[in-house]
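Aim 2 progress update. The chain analyzed this quarter is reproduced below.
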Amino acid sequence: MKGFHEVMKKHVRPWLILGAAFLLLLSSSLLAHSEDQKPKSLSIVHLGDSYSAGNGAGQYYGPADCRRSGRNWGALFASWVNSQGIAASYQNHACSRGRIGDLFSSRTLPKQSSRGVSANSVEDAKATLDSSDACSTRAVGDDFLSVDYHLTKNNSRWPWGKDYTYECQITIRAQADFVGPQTDLVLMTMGGNDLGFSHLMTNCFGPKIPFVMDGAHAVKCRDDIAAAKSNLPNTLNKLKENIAQLITTRMTGSTTSKVMLLSYPLLSTDRAYVLNNDGIQFDASRGIRELGRLAVTEQKRVIGELEATFPGRVKFVENTPAAFAGHEPDPRVFTKNDYRWINEFLETEGDYGSDNKVTGNFSKTPSDWYHPNLIGHREMSKLAQTASSTTSAQEIGARRGNVDMAFVVNANSPLSSQIDQVRAAISSATDKVANETSSARFALITTDTTGQHRVAQPFTADTTIFLDAVATLDPTQATAEPTEEATTSLDWRSGVRRATVMIGGANSMDEAQSTNFVPTADAGSTTQVLTIDTAAGASSQEASGSQAAEASTLTVADGTELETAAAAQISALLDAPVATLQGPYIGKIGEKLELDARGSYAFDGQVTQFEWDFDGDGNYDETTTTGSTSHAYTDTVNNGFAKVRVTDSNGRQSIASARLDVTQDGDTVPDEFDNCPTISNPQQEDLDHNGVGDACQESGTQQAEESQGVEDPASSDPSASSSSSPASSDPAEQPGTPASFAPGVPAQGRPMTPDHPGLPRTGA
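Predicted structure tokens:
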């Protein structure tokens, strides 16, 4: 044994030492390499129409008619980006029935269906509707310009009758308003509605429903397709002009920012479906497919022209029809393709069942029909995941992100008398923020001696303009005219860090929250409120109100300390990590929601801890080291917030919040106003106006009939049969397998029941 040990000592041990040294050097090299690999962020904004908003995917949020879904292909794409180690923030401002003109113009949405409210007067009814968010007026992104309640006094003598019925009519901002220098990537589908998408589907494939819908018609289908072909070049030239305008006037922060346009899938399987009306025969299926292919060709043309003008700034994903081949809808009304990626007639939220065939939930809402189902949205997300899809991501380095900062100067504070020091502090802070961030905007607000607020300078990125306003600052001379309703209105950007600096303070956080110079929290933003005052005994606190902001108070002796104190606090704000909570979250009682904060990042070091406040009450319910978690809610939440507090390796912290709504049925309509509180019906359809939603109706079924289309066996493609097999019988290899992580997505809903009573509405 002694000889053995001597051999080991003399010959083997030195090699072990050398091996260990080599491994140490290798690990050091790898560590250095990983440190050299700077993290990246990607700010994503989704624009466009129903194929982008999320029609057909369910779990809708925001304006009811927009039908935005957290399960759409853009949200899934953002989740994938996060899985690649890139911190992604995502905003969805696409809207159902969107047209090209909506990119740069505001839009008034159709009235939502009548519902009831108990109140003593019209004013009380409006106040009740506002406080309950019955019209979804506080949806993520602050995209509402106005909401109008159309109230009617009820004369019902029934004991359950409500005092008033109301309809909501909402006007939303132009979609491009949410694109700016901070935007790295715009996702989009657009143009289908400009070509008459809803009429095409109704007149080519629609069922015949007596007194409701005429059904498919050979002449109408033929003429609609011909009109769409004729309008196609001008429509896409208009789209080209709007994309160019996005790049030149909004996406000015980076020469690598990009617009990605996805092509539409074809909307019928490759089988003949011949309509026969008035002695005219027309193959609706082949006509629609020909139009779809022509649209892709024209889209490729205009994007090619844009790429020549803006090299590397525009990308067209043209292979959607190829990816969806064999997974299109069956053109026959009551025959469904078992492997469809697009919802067919009377269904929504289609997904693979246990038998590898697709089933969906019943839907009488035409806006769901002929739109991607859950599988389709997953597959469109995969199409966006190309090699160049993340090349516009920005390195996280010395530039401290994107910031909107509002300064509020209180005339009732002792600091207001030291106006020169106040001006100097604001000017110094402005220079620091402008020089250390990727993009910054500033606003100035004053309060007079009566406590009234006035916007002295709205948000501007031009520091010269802002500092000119600061130079003339005198809060004691400021007055707020009662007629100026917009004097406390600030146009905060979505998806950027937001900060309000109150010099002289506010009487309370409640006062601050009563005006919107304190920003509303939304997905992708960190909201902070800093109060600098001479009040003794002030201490840091975290606000837990509706704004879900992070608030702190700093005490100074007088104005001589103001500039130094403000500079230190603003440095701390800029150095803090960026917290992102990718909502909004729409949940159903008892079902788990996946909360995603993986888009959070640190400028110096790493994010090491995530603290989760599931109900926004200021108490953190769970701590994780990873940026995702799940939670099942046991009670309703109306217009609430979920929060996350992130901590980096230097101990710095930031908070982000996201809109949260939990109801019995999983839509955003509060249960007390929901005409069908147990079944999701965000648009509250009530065809007979009896106060009971169509989704809950137990009678009144009318019979839908097959239209006059017939299959031509001689021209059919057997490989595209409705009973055709998928590419693989193995679920793991089956196209459309659910993504491993989909934020805000509950379990699959109930199967579709074809005999469900009620009627669809006309239109799409």
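The two ends are 87 Å apart (CA to CA). The first helix runs from residue 2 to 36. These observations will guide the mutagenesis experiments scheduled for the next reporting period.
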